[in-house]
Each structure stands twice: as structure tokens, then as C-alpha cells.
């Protein structure tokens, strides 16, 4: 089922505002996950934290993201995108404020876990809402923009943390945590008033509400009769649930989305840790200045995403992800040479990896939203996020051990091996979804809703205004 009034609408102020509002979640993810690293320096001194305490505080948010994505994605498919879209931001505001008053390790761990759950919930909520509102030909680029916000948020955290530490010293760690509440409140205000997804409303049989939402957002009128027909079309499709993601034809898509996401993000987290060491060669790796160096790392990854944003809608999803993973292997393999490599080669490899990683990065949320129907779209996005965080948590925990016992060269070769797995998964399972409606991209082969069937249906829908 497709709503032509939405699918073929020209980009307007609503689409731009919705994109920025949805990008607020990834921005806060990058910010909140990074600001804690800056704040831990002063926090450890004041609260006398042990190394184990620091590890628990640092890992709590990642565990929370895993739980939040897994649970709240499914809840979003049942309750709707609009309500959850603002609730999770309210939790971020409250959790950040309470963090300012924490004086015990367990309090910080609990609050970081709650913040992680809200962040993990926002990924499937915001991405499914945006995917169901944006015009078909711009969907890949606009969904890809959301991941850029993560790196911008991380860079902002390091810059703001650096400035606070310079002005007030490491004792300003509580103000660093409070800054997350301010940013969350700003994004929450930006989200207020966003209409519900018309696809979700039609899927639930709420055609009158869908008509009002389209009129409010796009100033386009679709008749109730046409929406009733669309609703009947949607209800004719088997309504899938959480379990359906792990059986039958959807299992392959679930594994693809989760595994390529995990294979992309695991080495990336490792390079984030390795990055300050590289920058240390230029005098940017010691003391508070290292926060600026870490911010520069985020900027490099942002630059890598920019060309990919244009290519996913021009060249296609499949060639971008397959070729990107193949090219990402090369710099990691070269870094396998270890510390004996010249600094210029190490820096060049780091920049090349950042550039090539843009393809899988911008598709992290595009594929889950395109390959699954309305009834489980947010659920699938949440599952993919949860699977990816297994790799992120494992990489963060195991990297120091690997560096200590195996050395930097072997560690980078392990990263190359993980990236090869990402290439194999993408080569075997990546589907091409460029230029197709959500109804067509989410249809299973042989389901009667294939591209060909979609093309026949499009003629009828054009006559009905959908």
C-alpha cells in the first residue's frame, strides 16, 4: 500500500523540520555517549570511582540502547510513532537532570541505563516516522542524514566538554551532564506538534486521522473513500509481529540488517578509541586537548558520509554498501602492519576508512525501514539497532584487552576480518530498493506485491489520488 499524496509530494518546510527533529535522537546519542567520557575524568576524582565503576558507567548506556531498541520498537508499532516520539525525549531531559545530582556509582549506572533505553527507543521511532512521511525519491538521502547527526553530536560533546574543562576545570563534570538536558529540551520542543504517520494510521484503520495528518503537513487533500481503499489494501497484507522477524523470508532480512550494522559499527568503535593515539602524533593526544582531537575524529567520519548520501539515491543501495565494505577492508588490512608503519600511512588509512565507511553508515537505518512492512517497521529497526550494539559493546570491552595482548597490528586485522564478514553479508543479501515505494520494498518475493505488481497497482492508485 502506498499513499501517492505522500510518496510524490515535493519537499517542503514540513519535511525539512521533520528531518531535523528526527535527527535530534542520533545527535543526542552521539552527545550523551561522548560527554560521559569527558565527564568521567572529574567524576572519578570527586566520587573516587574504581576502574570497574568507570567501566560500568560507560557500558550502561550501551546496554540500555540494546534493551530500548528491542522493546520499544515493537511498542511503537502498536501505540504509534507520534506519542513515543516525544515521550522518549522527555525521558532524556529527566534522566540528564537527575544525573547532575548523582553521588553514587549505582545511581549513575541506573541513570545511564535509562538514558540508553530512551536513545535506543528513539532510533526505530524517529526513523520509521521519517521514512513514512518523506517522498520516495528522497528517502535514502534524508534517512542517511540522520546518522550524520550522531557524529555531529559526538563532536559537539568533545568541544563543549573541552570548553567547560578549560574554564572551570574537571570539577565541571556535573555541568557537562546538565548540558545534555538542555539540548534534549530544545529537540523536544522542536518535535511537539508533529503529526502521526499516515501509513501507520491507515494500517490501524484510522483513515479520518490520516486525512487530517496529510492535510496538516502537506496541505493536500485525499478523500476518505480513497483512504478506505488504501486501508483495505493494507489490511489485506498479513499483519506481522515480532516473532515473524525471526522466521520465514523475513529472517534473512533481519539477519542482513543486524549483521551489516554490527560489522560496520564494531571496527568503527575500535578506531574511535585508536584515533586519539593517531592524533597524539600531532600533539593532540594528551590532557584536555585530547577532547578536541576526539572531536576532529567525528568530523572525519562526517565527511565520509557526505558522498554516500548522494550515491544511495543516484547509484543505488546495493552497489554502495557492497563496494563500501570491500574498500573498507583495505585500510584496516594495511593498519595490520602495526606501530612500525609511518605516521603518514596510518593517518591516510584512517581517513580512507572514514571515507569508505560512509556507505554502510548512511544505510544503517534506511534498509530496516525499507525492507519491512508498516506493522513491524519500527520493530525491525529496533532489532537491528540491538544487534549492532552487541558488537559495539563487545568491541569497546575487548579492544583494550586485544591491544594489550595481541598488539595494534593484530587488532586491526581482526577489524578487517569483521569488515570482510560485513561484505559477505551484503554481497549475499543486500537488496536494491532505490526508487521504489515502501509497499514495493517491503514486499516479499512471490507475495503479489512485487515491483511488477506494484507497477500495475500504481496506475490504479494514480487515478484514485493515492
UniProtKB/TrEMBL annotation:
It is a multi-pass membrane protein. The chain crosses the membrane at residues 20-43, 55-76, 83-102, 108-130, 142-163, 175-194, 250-272, 292-312, 324-356, 406-430. InterPro entries: MFS_dom, MFS_sugar_transport-like, MFS_Sugar_Transporters, MFS_trans_sf, Sugar_transporter_CS. Residues 456-466 have a biased composition (Basic and acidic residues). GO terms for cellular component: plasma membrane. It is found in: Cell membrane. It comes from the Bacteria. SUPFAM superfamilies: MFS general substrate transporter (SSF103473). Keywords: Membrane, Transmembrane, Transmembrane helix. Residues 440-466 are annotated as: Disordered. GO terms for molecular function: carbohydrate:proton symporter activity. Residues 18-434 form the Major facilitator superfamily (MFS) profile domain. Its main location: membrane. Belongs to the major facilitator superfamily. Sugar transporter (TC 2.A.1.1) family. PANTHER family: PLASTIDIC GLUCOSE TRANSPORTER 4. This is Sugar porter family MFS transporter. It comes from Streptomyces guryensis.
